[in-house]
Amino acid sequence: MRRLALMLRALPATAALLSACSSGPGPLGNGGVPAQQCVPARQGQTITMGIYELENSGSTPANVQSVSLGSPHGLAITNAWITPIFANTPLIGAVLSWPPPAGPAWAERKEAEGAVINPGRDMNLVLGLTRTTANTGRSDGPIIVYTAGGTTYTLSENTSLIVAAKCI
Amino acid sequence: MFILRRLRQAWPAVLATASAAAVAIALGSPLAASADTIPVPNEVYSEWQVGTPLPTAPAGYTWQALPNGTAMAGMADGTSFSMTSPALATPDASGFVNLVALPTPDIPYCVRSVYKQLGQKTTNVEQSYTTVNGISMSFNYGNGQSSRLGVGTSLNNPNGGFSASGTDSVSTNKNQGFPTSTAKSYNHWETNFLAEEIKDQCPTGTIYSVMEYKWAGGAVVTHPSSAPSVSSGNCVPEPKGSTWTQSGTRASSFSVGWSVLGFNASAQTGYSSTASIHFAYNVSGRLCGTKDVPGGSPGVLVGT
Q1: How confident is the model at residue B35 (pLDDT cuts 50, 70, 90)?
Q2: What's the burial of A11, exposed, middle or buried (CB within 10 Å: 0-12/13-18/19+)?
Q3: What is the pLDDT of residue B108?
Q4: Which long-range contacts (CB under 8 A, 24 or more apart) does A99-103 make?
Q5: Which of A150, B50, B149, B288 is found 20 to 30 A from B167 (Cα to Cα)?
Q6: Binary contact (A34, B286; C-beta < 8 A)
Q7: Which of residues A23 and B53 earns the better pLDDT score?
């Protein structure tokens, strides 16, 4: 009986914990279609990976908590920024050097961790990626942990990455 | 015998009820105004993957399962066949069962047969474009890949008047490669499916359906005269030496995937990871989607 009372008392706390975390798609989307981007680079070279779009389709600001690579092998994030995406302007995309060429979007960059993406805003996640192995560097897409409306979301981008001596 | 007698006794009432329903649908009555109501002609097709919830049948309609593609391929013109409840159907190699929704009063009384085998139809299963030289492009339609293909139905007319009435699913059982395009190229990647016309004699009328039901293989690349326009905002720069491969998603739906008897059917590919489209940049350029950036929900991909 006492055990039951304890369990009942714990229910509201458990429910609160469950409601504060969500593994479902949040306002920054579902990570897009499965794809793979390969970029050529030598060991130790840092390249720009600015192919990911973070669009807040929700009604509350999204606060980026962390950005990491999913299951990395020989690949490391050395820089993580977000930049605005201007109308009719391409994303920063993949570039064989770091940092990317200067431009209006890059001039307004903010560190990804701690950045706020307001409702309706469309931002470009721009990573500096270093190949740390003599072998081909690989990872799943980046994992972005963020909060919005009191809920914490984990977004796994579905475009995986290869950084290799040669892609073609 | 008793059942047969009961059926004969009930037939006029069934006919009257079903005919009234058909007229109601045809005249756009409140019955036809329901969101769930199937437009004339009153059959609709859908596909179902075993292990997932059945799609919702429109009110007053019940799903029946068609024989799978292998069974259909063995049926000559005029062969009658029966349908089963979805739970008893034999799925194809990818686990798909093709369904048709019939008005519930019709279910015991419709007589279904192969009206005509239509042979192989070339079908557009993917599209991609490069608008500059130096970007190569290839497509692979892999083993186990499914395409969702438009089905057309026509009331009382076997030779025309077909309109879109749902989709069915056909899966591959082998890998089909396509030649690589190495220069500027607008590509429709096409393969062949067996098609047939089905005759369904029901109390509400005779309904003819045209559908593709089995993959036949083959690789055909056709070249439309223009590429779709893309917004720069849906593009990402790609450096020389990079590649992009997209797989494991539903490709864009094409309004004209295949055509027969004046009917243009839709097509959509991509239920599994075995179909892939690949771009290789021998020059620096951009990769764009017609609807979104390549890593989002891009629609058709264009290398520029």
Answers
A1: very low
A2: exposed
A3: 81
A4: A99/A48, A99/A128, A100/A48, A100/A50, A100/A126
A5: B288
A6: no
A7: B53
SS3 of B72, please? helix
* SS3 state at B22: helix
pTM of the full structure: 0.81
Q: Which of B245, B276, B292 to mutate to test the interface with A (most CBs of A within 10 A)?
A: B245
The H-or-E segment that residue B105 falls in is none
Residue B20: predicted pLDDT: 34
Residue B51 phi, psi dihedral angles, 5° rounding: 100, -10
Residue A149 has which token pair?
A: 């409306």
Q: How far apart are CA A100 and CA A123, in angstroms?
A: 16
Residue with tokens 């015991």: B108
| Cβ-based contacts of B295 with chain A (< 8 Å) | 32-33, 35, 37, 51-53, 157-159
Which 3 state secondary structure label does DSSP give A72? strand
**H or E segment at A65?**
strand A62-73
Here the tokens at position B51 are 């292990």
Per-residue DSSP letter, B66? P
On the question of a cis peptide bond just before residue B41, with omega within 30 degrees of 0, the verdict is yes
> How far apart (Å, rounded) are the C-alpha atoms in residues B260 and B118?
9
- This complex has an ipTM of 0.86
Query: Letter for the amino acid at B249?
Result: T
B37 — pLDDT class (breaks 50, 70, 90):
very low
Q: How many Cα atoms are found within 13 Å in the side-chain-facing hemisphere of B215?
A: 27
> Which residue shows structure tokens 């706390």?
A13
